[in-house]
Design brief:
This protein is of the alpha+beta class and about 775 residues long. Among the domains are: about 190 residues, Transferase(Phosphotransferase), domain 1, CATH 1.10.510; about 140 residues, TolB, N-terminal domain (Rossmann fold); about 120 residues, Alpha Horseshoe (Serine Threonine Protein Phosphatase 5, Tetratricopeptide repeat), CATH 1.25.40. The strands form four sheets. Strands 9, 10, 12, 13, 14 and 15 form a six-stranded mixed β-sheet that branches. The protein has a five-stranded antiparallel β-sheet with strand order 1-2-3-5-4, covered by helices on one side. α3 runs antiparallel to α10, α18 runs parallel beside α20 and α24 packs parallel to α26.
Length: about 775
């Protein structure tokens, strides 16, 4: 078999004309009986011109064939015979051949001028639905049926050879001529002598092999074109013509309903029958195919009647880990999170927040009870069992009303097949619910961010440690996994965002290298944005980066943009609540944090921030404690809640219990600076001054310059309280001034209200310096507020 050259795509005959006076001068051919008026395009076989036929004064398209098209006199004679045969075709969807001839040794033929656009462009720009596509395909098949009945085969059917006019009618060009274009000097056909005929992407297996062709060759091409119109991609792929031809011969196309699950099952049967590699297994003629096309039109009417009912709803439960290895939890969380994202692309389907689904599952409810509480029609439940790189994933879609299975499947796959499994689950769900999935026409690596399943596995490990664990050790582990993902795929934008999250988190925890962390976060985000300019999933990270960099206004703007696009994302809502809390906007903070818990009852940070709100601004310690008990009832080892409860114990005078809680938190997570400063208060109140001073020094080393936000406010204020209890008033006033500066940087005018809650500061309040600090702070806070 000879390897074909990749064909230059010929512009449609109605393509744009060069502007007069621009570019190089074009030499117009002079052909008897015609006036050539403008060039229309140039392809592999020659040049197309717009001309006027002088005898009829009609506009025509004239194609002058290149000098090397024919290899012999016999081939030229065959071309003339093909033109003569094709000129006899009289069908409204076939561009007519009017004339042919020889001009200065160059052959030409004249055809009807079609003012239209290529079929694929017409479908894409018009956003045509299935019914319109089937109508167009049926018209093409009727034109092919007319030709086949007269012994003419196209052999080079492709979207650029099908122009659609303004009235929506497709017109076939270059009909029946592809065979003659490449025939050798032989008594047989070109295909009898191993010469491939056609454009690689649309060739049939018999064309690739250089075997005899017939009407079934056109039927194969119809299948390719139809598949492309529906799926937005061709069934056979390759980087070179040779790879494409090999794919046609050796690979089966991805089932069209995996790419377009909104199509009825009958579509898959008909299209893939057209694409059978063995001609004897395809439709044997256009008559049979047209019968099935008519059937499909009827099926579509019924299908659309079913799918036009009210939107359906589903909850995706976190997948259960059956591996027996706690380390595999990341895979279960990653699968449920990404499948939920895929399900959100199903048209007319409401997908309940995975956080809400998880909270109901944690309460031990059965599947139907979970579905009824969440007011959904169906629940997707799954499990994962992993042995090495082998995965067994079991999934079932359950009807909440009666508990029956709508769909169930087991997938025994390797880890490298994880993308395909996720896609198949979303597609099967869409089909079971008779709904349409959008966004699946993109390649999996474009949706996931990487082609590498190994990089993806490292990424979901990093995401799991960051979002579901978040201790100091987990933050370090998260960074290792993100970095490993980037070693495997440096163009993995989501992993770069993950790295930026790490730097932001290290900034929040407190560090002597805060300036460097802000710069490192900026660089990681810049890498991500260069790879993926949209970066729709990076709102949270970008907001934290700009907050750390000191631009709180921009940070809040980014959060609000993110919430406009993702109103049910609890991390965005909670962060906005924290920003409001850091400014002392208690009512706004309450709204955001309460809304966070409605979206995700497990978003424990929201309850911790609500504790701060109640204790600092509303002075309601009973209600503040209720928020902590809510968290610790779900997660008794959640460090931030343990630390906050320790602070509650300090306010109640139970210093030993406070130390006990802080010690428990320290066993789970390396203490943050504000934790160390809280310990200093407890130790000072227990008259253990040396230990208290050591904790203060440790806190200062951990975060020497608190600057902004609730965490820094807490560290600075706790340090001032501890020093006051130690009766080191000079140092206490220094830290009280720092506390004022942190509140000013946070645009918070309510420091004095908070300080009034602390009896331990009485010694400071009796000092003249306290009144000076109050006046300075009030003056600057007023200016900031006016600004």
């Amino acid at each position: 078999m000879k390897e074909p050259q990749e064909e230059t795509r010929q512009p449609p005959v109605s393509g744009p004309r060069p502007e007069k006076g621009s570019g190089d001068t074009v030499a117009f051919p002079k052909i008897e009986a015609y006036e050539v008026v403008a060039p229309l395009g140039e392809g592999a076989m020659g040049t197309v011109w717009q001309a006027v036929q002088l005898s009829t004064h009609r506009l025509v398209a004239m194609k002058l064939l290149g000098g090397k098209v024919f290899g012999s006199d016999k081939a030229r004679a065959r071309f003339e015979r093909e033109v003569e045969l094709t000129a006899r075709l009289q069908h409204p969807n076939i561009a007519r051949i009017y004339d042919s001839g020889l001009h200065r040794g160059v052959y030409y033929y004249v055809m009807e001028l079609i003012e239209g656009v290529p079929l694929d462009r017409y479908v894409k720009e018009g956003r045509l639905g299935q019914q319109e596509i089937v109508r167009l395909v049926r018209s093409v098949c009727e034109a092919l049926q007319h030709a086949h009945q007269r012994g003419v085969i196209h052999r080079d059917l492709k979207p650029t050879n099908i122009l659609v006019t303004a009235d929506g009618q497709p017109h076939l060009l270059d009909f029946g001529l592809a065979k003659a274009f490449r025939e050798e000097d032989s008594g047989g056909s070109a295909t009898d002598f191993g010469e491939t005929v056609g454009t690689p992407d649309y060739m049939s297996p018999e064309q690739v092999r250089g075997e005899k062709t017939d009407s079934r060759t056109d039927i194969f091409a119809v299948g390719v074109v139809w598949y492309e119109l529906l799926a937005g991609t061709r069934p056979f792929h390759g980087k070179t013509p040779a790879e494409i031809l090999s794919s046609i011969l050796t690979r089966e196309p991805v089932s069209v309903d995996l790419l377009r699950p909104d199509v009825p099952t009958d579509f898959r049967r008909v299209i893939h029958k057209c694409l059978r590699k063995e001609p004897e297994l395809r439709y044997q003629d256009m008559d049979d195919l047209l019968v099935d096309l008519k059937h499909l039109e009827n099926v579509l009417e019924s299908w659309e009647a079913v799918t036009s009912k009210k939107p359906k709803s589903v909850a995706v439960l976190p997948f259960l880990n059956l591996s027996g290895e706690p380390a595999d939890e990341y895979l279960c969380e990653g699968l449920s999170e990404d499948i939920t994202t895929d399900m959100s692309k199903i048209h007319d389907l409401t997908v309940v927040s995975r956080w809400l689904a998880k909270s109901r599952q944690a309460r031990g409810l059965d599947v139907c009870s979970i579905g009824k509480e969440l007011e959904v029609d169906s629940v997707l439940q799954g499990s994962v069992q992993r042995v090495g790189k082998h995965l067994r994933i079991s999934v079932q879609l359950i009807n909440v009303l009666n508990g029956f299975h709508l769909w169930a499947e087991k997938f025994d796959r390797q880890m490298e097949d994880i993308f395909a499994v996720q896609d198949e689950i979303a597609v099967a769900t869409a089909r079971a619910l008779q709904l349409r999935l959008t966004g699946m026409d993109r390649e999996p690596h474009l949706r996931r961010g990487t082609e590498s399943s190994e990089a993806y596995e490292e990424f979901i490990k990093g995401r799991f440690h960051y979002w579901y664990r978040n201790t100091a050790a987990d933050v370090e582990a998260s960074e290792r996994h993100y970095r490993r993902a980037l070693e495997l795929d440096p163009s993995y934008a989501q992993a770069w965002v993950g790295v930026a999250d790490i730097y932001n988190m290290l900034w929040v925890r407190g560090s002597a290298r805060r300036k460097e962390l802000v710069e490192e976060s900026r660089q990681a985000l810049a890498r991500a944005e260069k790879i993926d300019p949209a970066l729709a999933y990076g709102y949270y990270t970008r907001a934290w980066h700009h907050a750390a960099a000191g631009d709180i206004i921009l940070a809040e703007k980014i959060l609000r943009e993110g919430l406009a696009e993702n109103p049910e994302e609890p991390a965005l809502r909670c962060t906005l609540g924290m920003f409001n809390l850091s400014r002392g906007e208690s009512e706004k903070a309450d709204d955001d944090l309460t809304a966070t818990l409605r979206l995700d009852p497990f978003f424990h940070y929201a309850n911790v921030y609500l504790w701060v709100l109640e204790a600092w601004y509303r002075r309601d310690l009973r209600k503040a404690l209720s928020h902590l008990d809510e968290v610790l009832g779900f997660a008794p080892d959640f460090c931030h809640a343990l630390r906050a409860k320790a602070k509650w114990c300090l306010l109640k005078g139970d210093f030993q219990e406070a130390l006990k809680l802080l010690g428990k938190a320290a066993e789970i997570d390396r203490p943050w600076a504000y934790h160390l400063a809280t310990e200093a208060i407890a130790l000072a109140c227990l008259n253990r001054p040396e230990e208290a001073r050591a904790k203060i020094e440790e806190a200062v080393a951990e975060n020497p310059e608190p600057t902004w936000g609730v965490t820094d406010q807490t560290q600075a204020m706790n340090t001032a309280v501890a020093l006051c209890v130690l009766d080191e008033l000079d140092d206490a006033f220094e830290w009280l001034e720092k506390t004022a500066d942190v509140f000013l940087n946070s645009y918070n005018p309510r420091l004095l209200d908070i300080l009034a809650n602390f009896p331990a500061l009485d010694a400071l309040r009796r000092d003249n310096r306290y009144e000076k600090m109050k006046r300075r702070y009030s003056s600057l806070a007023g200016r900031k507020d006016e600004g």
